[in-house]
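Page header: ASSEMBLY MODEL / two components / 541 residues total.
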Amino acid sequence: MKLKALQNFSYLGLIYLFFYIPIIILIVYSFNNTQYSLLWHGFTWRWYAELFSDSDLWISTWHSFFLGIASATASAFVGLLAAVSLYRYRFTGRSFLNGLVFILILSPEIVTGASLLILFTFLHLELGFISLLLAHVSFCIPFVIVTIYSRLVSFDKNIFEAAKDLGANDYVIFIRIILPLLWPAIFAGWLLSFTLSLDDVIISYFVAGPEFQILPLQIYSMVRSGIKPEINALCSVLFCLTLTLIVLSQLALRKKA
Amino acid sequence: MRHDSRFKAFSLSLIWLWMFLFALLPFCLVIMASFMGHSESTLIEMQPSLANYKQLNNAIYIRIFEKSFLIAGISTLICLLLGYPFAYIIARMQSRWKSFLLLLVIIPFWTSSLIRSYALIAIIKAKGILSSILISFGLIDHPLSILFTNYAVMIGLVYNLLPFMILPIMTNVERLDERLIDAARDLGANRFTTFRKIIIPLTMPGIIAGSILVFLPAMTIFYIPDILGGAKSILLGNLIQNQFLIAQNWPMGSAFSTVLTIVLATLILVYLWVSRGSKKREWI
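Prediction written out in full:
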């Protein structure tokens, strides 16, 4: 029995190693004092210094964060209304909408990107911040709907009946009952959208314009044009940032539970 | 009462408007564009024809389609073989570390996949870590030259998509009724028979959901072949991206997208058909 447990743990360990080795390597090499060699040439902060003085990169980081916050907020709003409507109302096309959400989650990003590019050209919308925002909100909404809907299903429906009996209309029920109960799910949906938006390459690649450079596309072009230790530094910073965000959100969730 | 219907009307019209404008309309435009012509001066020429679809019947395109299917298929299979035992062990674990171990799977998946694929280069390049380790163990004598080949693309795809395989299988295994396994063992089935006849069929929805979640993106993540693959590693995703953004032949790109969507939709329908037995619709 002991042997089997050992086997299991070593298997898990190997897979985790596979997941984490590239990240560890990046972090180690971001401190390596050499441009090309894989050998260790001593510790340096040089790449971080170069990274922090690269103003282009900072502008696109700021653009990405701004876009992420804006699209997460908008998709949380639309997704919230959609999830609540799907949960509370029986309307024509409800099952169609349900299926559409499912299809949109599964549909390949490249088709979404291409179709939005055609749409924006058709509407004579200039590619830039607005097109990116609309595209990101569109692909985030289904994920928000699913996150919030799965939370709504666990509610006791009698709460709404009670509120109705006491004279509340739909708007009051939404503000006074649904919103306070749903905050964690709305936040989860918001965070999911924010990460999706921050990380998206494929759809952004189609609908981005030259005026509004965002971080994933900038990284993409840096990666394509060649290996620079500066990218290692950037990746390490981003990884530590994500890790901090995850740990913080886990702590926040644990406190609530 | 009037307030009531106003709230409902506002929500519903907002959602429908959004879905129509940014989901249904663009897709209809793709289908329409796929039947149009193309010329140097205009992106889309308004002359309906089947020319784009006829062009699909071209040896180069067919090879790319086949290769995309093959590479995506092999990657999916590797993900399944690596991910199933992993998901199974974690799901059956009776430990307080379980949720932490699950979180460890998700953390890398919240970091930019572009960055992580780039990091893979350091491992698999000729004088990289993988070769050095294998040489020092005496398993190979020459450095492996897998970077910029289809193998590198597959490693990149497996690396990026493995969590998508693990998570659905894990939820499925967790719901597995322990008593069924005990019953099979009581009735004389050995471990292998139990696995084949009880565990696999019961976790089939998870296996299929995971396979779809790996297979679909594997065909279309164009940046992984771009970073890790060589000049010959053109997959369907690269082809579509190329038609739209480099060749500027939107109608042709639309035709590829339409065919891709039809193929993938068929796969999803198969999934729904297989998992129709389970009562609750599984939101992934």
